[in-house]
Amino acid sequence: xxxxxxxxxxxxxxxxxxxxxxxxxxxxxxxxxxxxxxxxxxxxxxxxxxxxxxxxxxxxxxxxxxxxxxxxxxxxxxxxxxxxxxxxxxxxxxxxxxxxxxxxxxxxxxxxxxxxxxxxxxxxxxxxxxxxxxxxxxxxxxxxxxxxxxxxxxxxxxxxxxxxxxxxxxxxxxxxxxxxxxxxxxxxxxxxxxxxxxxxxxxxxxxxxxxxxxxxxxxxxxxxxxxxxxxxxxxxxxxxxxxxxxxxxxxxxxxxxxxxxxxxxxxxxxxxxxxxxxxxxxxxxxxxxxxxxxxxxxxxxxxxxxxxxxxxxxxxxxxxxxxxxxxxxxxxxxxxxxxxxxxxxxxxxxxxxxxxxxxxxxxxxxxxxxxxxxxxxxxxxxxxxxxxxxxxxxxxxxxxxxxxxxxxxxxxxxxxxxxxxxxxxxxxxxxxxxxxxxxxxxxxxxxxxxxxxxxxxxxxxxxxxxxxxxxxxxxxxxxxxxxxxxxxxxxxxxxxxxxxxxxxxxxxxxxxxxxxxxxxxxxxxxxxxxxxxxxxxxxxxxxxxxxxxxxxxxxxxxxxxxxxxxxxxxxxxxxxxxxxxxxxxxxxxxxxxxxxxxxxxxxxxxxxxxxxxxxxxxxxxxxxxxxxxxxxxxxxxxxxxxxxxxxxxxxxxxxxxxxxxxxxxxxxxxxxxxxxxxxxxxxxxxxxxxxxxxxxxxxx
Length: 700
Ligand code: GLA
What we know:
Blueprint: E1 5-10, E2 14-20, E3 26-33, H1 43-46, E4 76-79, E5 92-97, E6 101-108, E7 113-122, E8 125-134, E9 140-145, E10 148-152, E11 156-165, E12 168-176, E13 181-186, E14 198-203, E15 213-218, E16 224-230, E17 236-242, E18 249-251, E19 256-258, E20 262-267, H2 270-285, E21 299-301, H3 303-306, H4 312-324, E22 329-332, H5 362-370, E23 374-379, E24 383-384, H6 389-393, E25 413-414, H7 420-436, E26 441-444, H8 455-472, E27 477-480, E28 498-500, H9 507-517, E29 526-531, H10 544-551, E30 555-559, H11 567-587, E31 591-596, E32 601-607, E33 611-618, E34 640-648, H12 651-655, H13 660-667, E35 670-672, H14 674-680, E36 691-699
Parallel strand pairs: 21-22, 21-30, 22-23, 23-26, 26-27, 27-28, 28-29, 29-30
Antiparallel strand pairs: 1-2, 2-3, 4-9, 5-6, 6-7, 7-8, 8-19, 8-20, 9-18, 10-17, 11-12, 11-14, 13-16, 14-15, 15-20, 16-17, 24-25, 31-32, 32-33, 33-36, 34-35, 34-36
Helix pairs in contact: 4-5, 7-8, 9-10, 10-11
Bound molecules: alpha-D-galactopyranose (GLA).
């Protein structure tokens, strides 16, 4: 029993407790590890007097607004049309609580606006969203509306975020919790190459598999701000929001605006614990054709195999070579439409180039299907080249058509997705292509940042077009690509089924990138391809088996021309395709557990709790003579049969160095107790620079 009126929501691993204050309003009491019910004093009894402060101290509000004694960040800022700031004073409150949801309504009856904050269980995590309604007779301009305002655990010590650029996505940044404030903003009109708008907060002693951690990702593909502010009361406060262009959100009487959802994970099982909740939440919003994920088919993407230099005959050959090695989906990338000889022209003219594809794309698509593969097509609907028929016909359809300067990037401009006529046109073109040709997959690209900006309405316009295409062609899967990994987020995840992680498919560059991807996104959504050697992005060369081993962690594909390989390499790549087909059931849809060993060893296990595939990799050489066994904490509690499936890298160097007992594990699984694997560790095969080993673990 408690003497305070508490509104509680409990996940398997976390609890959220809000107090309804007797004088009105809602105050945060707990957001953190799961609690058992207990006696809790009322918030007012915990607030001692402090010098030079309000005589009536204020408990931490759930929906704070400026004024009325709150000196921290405001959850909402509203204006009248004459630019007068609405001086909010929330005085009317109501709450609805169910097992799965706490919904709070705070209203200002004088100004006639109300705010809803909704906390819902989403899979194993917590989804937070806010909404504002104009209940008055005059318009309201929304300057800002935080999707959530959350207290962070006072024991937080570190903050993890990611930054990046084209072909160098997801650089992990670890910082101490700020003394004053911290902010991660994106202002490119798209998600950006630092990955989802998100961060992880790690508490004292938190590591990969233990310790209290919290993470939050905003389900939005436009401009975003995630801010953390230190509060005088010894905690940090997190706000997350979509950034709006001033004045763009105007609520007429009776209108409502909903901010994008913030997906929050809280776990005492460290960074892997919060990643698992984020995966569960993202999985819950992905809409698969027919409701369930099929085994993720092996791709061949034509881009790095031939760039813009192709025609029907060339692509038929490439498709045949792909089918020969076991590819299941052939994706025709850029260069197939009118005027597209290079990246200077053609975007906007979504009609097959008559010279390259005289009878359209159907003959190629049918050839691909006859080979037993699906046919996918690259498009970049939101973009336009000034050198295109579409631009010549509709120069006013681009962002910046109001006479402001329109800098090109990759020689292209951005279409104004706020305009219904632009969206209708794009819908007709895409619908026409999908209806005329057996296309079951779109790679939906977006290759530049927005300048000038289109604001959040631009993002909503894109979502609207995606939703229409999905509704009209529900069997078509979509890949979100934006100059590689520039649009990977949980907002667009509602419409797509794969993310292109990066144009950099150098295996060594991919190791940290792919690990970072899984902080918020499940591995089955991660496009991971075997590219040519040397890598087109870095110029580095890596062994074919290393490239394949690293790609097999995600949704596997090939991004080279198999006919350029020698027969032995073709056999090798076909064997890796078989490997992937054999193990994707385990690698996808389950848990992902990351860890680190000494001397540069990185490992990750993907599986269902009783069976795992374990990848162990090393990029740089070690200075140790031999590696010590590698502790695997996730294995504790049961016995395991362990088999060495693959060793990848410079195989002639590796083979000579394995211990006999390790080589024996290639042929017959060996049983280890869980406590042995967790505490003493898994004996390792030889791991030289640029090598990997893949094990299979099955609970006995
Ligand atoms: C972007 C994508 C690539 C490819 C090209 C085509 O860079 O990330 O995979 O599709 O565009 O122009």
